[in-house]
Design goal:
Chain lengths: 463, 463
């Protein structure tokens, strides 16, 4: 980690005057704020500040703008593509203390929260309301961070992603303007879609300080099931057929044999260590039964096992906790290693081919490889479990990822279904979007952040 | 209509050289392209051109940019807020000849069309595919126009609006760049959301030439029903309770007694001329039955009648055709008059209050007034049937609309749920969004169209 000359830094002086104790330059804090949960190395900021309000964010932005000091918005650091790496130094604005749930409106099925509220905190708040917020990326991320990366996760196949479930944002811009992007109407044709401009902008266009979310009614009945297959191909075929039949599954997760082995070990479960679908059905009791029967038939046609049901809430929770702990379960397969997680997403008809080719290419890899995915969306992750000290492993992972991304894009897909670009995938943006679209993205960045104050080096490739 | 000196206009000369017979300055063509379907007066363009390809649009934009000649993209002219009015003259780019369905991909449940393909044309193309495109604004609009106005309509309560159902666009920018906004993956976190930047931009940021849409599986069972209520309040209460109970109705349309009277006359039907919900349920046979039973119970609790079912496709078509013909049915109630249609959308809990107040205010109006709405979305329309030659009626309609819009915004709603801003509602943008958001919209417009070439005078209020 670089040692900044923090004693002579007027930006940090200004931030200290503003935040007092809530501004830190301690190495441990800086180190903790310079990394997410992936293989990307730590790039520590020069300082960390904990604003408590939108007004304080405005004041901090003002100070940083005056001194051209970069700002990296920070939630809880669960990102996977180096989003929080302070590539050009500056301050990490840690929003975790802006964690008030401002207004729950059950009768409108929406909620407004400060950006630092986490997914689980909201879940807890809603537990007796009959409502829930479905977007679930696994990690207990902040809702501001989830908006910023356009997160999705296991429920997206039925409930959509942050793109569909954010109603409005409050955003602090580089020039100090505070923009409320929309009202709370479920639909509106009143002008440019400012909400979607910031959803997925990864902290590069402004600092999200408040989020209004759409909630959904808790389904009357929920049933989870596990179905094993002789091969990944057959599990994927079942998922594709389920989507194409329009069966409204709530969750449909692929886990290959390696993943199942890691899950069984880490979460002390005893599922067959072979290709598996974790399924969940939401609806009325009758509709859940009907959906399950339909998917069961498709699975049987692909040599799937009978469903192993998790009907009681505690069984279901154990199942999905195991799914959520996958990142840690995978890490436990090779202590000391890091996971390089790929994240392509392709049109559903191309999913089988894309997964097959990715697994074929990785078969020779010198490290443990997992395949899992939100297959109902056409999104899957290869996990390359690498020793960061071994350049050969890192290079092999990089080569495999690049090959996979190119293949996915050639199939009409994207380099990232849900993790975001960060700086890990900036180099694929032109391949995916073309020069014209990337140049338009550059214009947007320049329009909102002409001095490149917000999270520099992310999303866009070097010009 | 102004008479432009078309003989000495170098922009028109250039367009004539490019388009030949497909460039017209005939008064009848110009007149037809200067108006939508609402009360807004005709503002004819100086010329009308019919491009046949994205390349021709690029060439036309190049000519117009050189001569600073405004461009108004035109679909089939079904807009309601003066979107196609050539406020500063220029050329109407009529995209109706770009009407090829480029690629239907049933296995991915998506389709790519040229912007001039209409909703019904697509419907026809998909009729044997098992798939359908749900966005249905009533009019047989072009899909490019529907994207440009962020249209929705009767199915939005279940399937979303154009915001949720456009996967990608091809857009010609003012400087000639052709941007493909996204690939076909169902979700992506790869950079700024260019698709949503153009959905709802009403031709002010670029010319949409191709649209890739998400399709949905045709439901196994469909049932439509009509339910009458003693009062609008009770019908609205039923709609609100249905939404809050999370029942996934596919359509839920409110029609007041005046509308029903107009419908009965125009479509030769015999429904009671009282507040009514038109409902449609999609799903498996069992789920349709279940949904209907649940809504039936809620309706009964609000003194609703037993459902009158339209089960056979031809009965259903008659019902929804009557709903779609409402605009014309209303016009027939007062020959020679125009409909001033309001379009507010509010959070669902405020819908009853908003409708009650709007109807109370309109009770004294000197003209026929209807109330109808996509009440599941919190969106409704008052129809003021006015004599355009009577300034007092026009003023009364304007006053009522303004009062309604202010009320809706104070309730957390929007001045336009689906019709768009055009120039009719530009004056409400600051009230609804605030100075900061409107200034950001201005920046976006300036970034993409610094010479104000595209559809000038729309969306944004005069600076």
């Amino acid at each position: 980690m670089d040692t900044p000359s923090t004693l002579e830094n007027p930006a940090i002086d200004g931030l200290r005057a503003l935040f007092g104790e809530r501004c830190s330059t301690r190495p441990a804090e800086r180190e903790q704020h310079g990394r997410g949960e992936s293989y990307h190395p730590c790039r520590a900021p020069d300082a960390v500040c904990w604003p408590g309000s939108t007004d304080e964010v405005v004041a901090a932005v003002e100070i940083c703008r005056r001194h051209r000091f970069p700002i990296v918005p920070f939630g809880v650091g669960t990102s996977l593509e180096g989003h929080v790496a302070a590539l050009e130094g500056g301050v990490a604005l840690d929003l975790s203390r802006m964690n008030r749930i401002l207004m729950v409106r059950p009768e409108d099925m929406d909620v407004t929260v400060e950006a630092g509220v986490t997914r689980k905190q909201l879940d807890q708040e809603l537990r007796d309301s009959g409502l829930f917020f479905p977007i679930d990326p696994g990690a207990d991320a902040t809702l501001g961070g989830m908006a910023a990366t356009r997160a999705s996760g296991t429920n997206a196949v039925r409930y959509g992603t942050m793109r569909e479930n954010v109603l409005a944002l409050t955003v602090v811009l580089a020039d100090g303007r505070v923009v409320k992007t929309a009202n709370r109407a479920r639909k509106s044709s009143a002008g440019y879609d400012l909400t979607r401009l910031f959803v997925g902008s990864e902290g590069t266009l402004g600092v999200i300080t408040e989020v209004t979310l759409r909630l959904h009614g808790r389904p009357e009945a929920v049933a989870s099931a596990v179905c094993s297959f002789p091969s990944v191909d057959q599990a994927v075929a079942t998922a594709m057929e389920t989507v194409q039949a329009g069966i409204p599954v709530a969750r449909m997760e692929l886990l290959d044999g390696n993943v199942m082995e890691a899950v069984n070990r880490f979460s002390k479960l005893d599922y067959p260590a072979t290709a598996t679908l974790f399924l969940e059905f939401h609806g009325s009791a009758a509709s859940v039964e009907e959906q399950a029967a339909m998917v069961g038939e498709l699975a049987a046609g692909n040599d799937g096992s009978a469903f192993r049901w998790a009907l009681r809430p505690e069984e279901r929770n154990a199942l999905w906790q195991a799914r959520h702990d996958l990142h840690y379960a995978t890490l436990a397969m090779r202590p000391g290693a890091k996971v390089w997680g790929t994240d392509v997403c392709v049109p559903i008809s191309a999913l089988g081919e894309c997964i097959r080719e990715a697994r074929r290419a990785a078969a020779e890899a010198p490290f443990f490889v997992t395949t899992l995915g939100h297959v109902g969306d056409g999104n899957f992750h290869m996990g390359y479990l690498i020793d960061m000290a071994d350049p050969a492993e890192l290079q092999a992972a990089e080569r495999l990822n690049e090959r996979l991304v190119r293949h996915a894009i050639s199939l009409g897909g994207t380099c990232t279904g849900e993790h975001g670009v960060g700086y890990g995938k900036a180099k694929f943006m032109t391949l995916e979007h073309g020069d014209a679209a990337v140049s338009l993205m550059r214009q947007i960045k320049h329009m909102l952040d002409p001095e490149n104050l917000f999270n520099p080096g992310k999303i866009l490739p070097p010009a």
